[in-house]
Every structure is written in structure tokens, then in C-alpha cells.
Amino acid sequence: MYPNPSSDFLNISGLTETQHYGIYNIIGTEVKKGSISNQEKIDIQDLTNGIYLLKLDTWKHL
């Protein structure tokens, strides 16, 4: 994931398939969610300054 820190967009390298993601604030509230594929960016311009956690849903359906 880069750049870190960022205030505009996040890039995640090495994705081989579309991934669902959630962005959580420091107290654990989900503040943004969506999906991302290789070469796409996550727009974080609407988030206020702070520390956030990014969780990718890498669970595969069998």
C-alpha cells in the first residue's frame, strides 16, 4: 500500500483479483468500504486527518 501517509488516494500493489475493503477509524468504526482491482486507487480525500486501518477481504469462496 502506498503512499503512506496519504491524503488523496491509496494504491495497493500486487492484487491479482478484485478485493473488497473496509477503512476503519482508530475506534473501530467503518468509515468507508468498497472494492478495488489492480491498478485502481482508493479515494480518501473525504476522510479527515487521522489514523485509519485498512482491511482487505481476502476470504475465497469455495
Automatic annotation (TrEMBL):
Keyword terms of this UniProt record: Signal
InterPro entries: Secre_tail
Signal as UniProt keyword: yes
Residue ranges annotated for the Secretion system C-terminal sorting domain, each copy included: 1-58
NCBIfam families listed in its UniProt record: Por_Secre_tail
Annotated protein name in UniProt: T9SS type A sorting domain-containing protein
The organism of origin for this protein: Algibacter miyuki
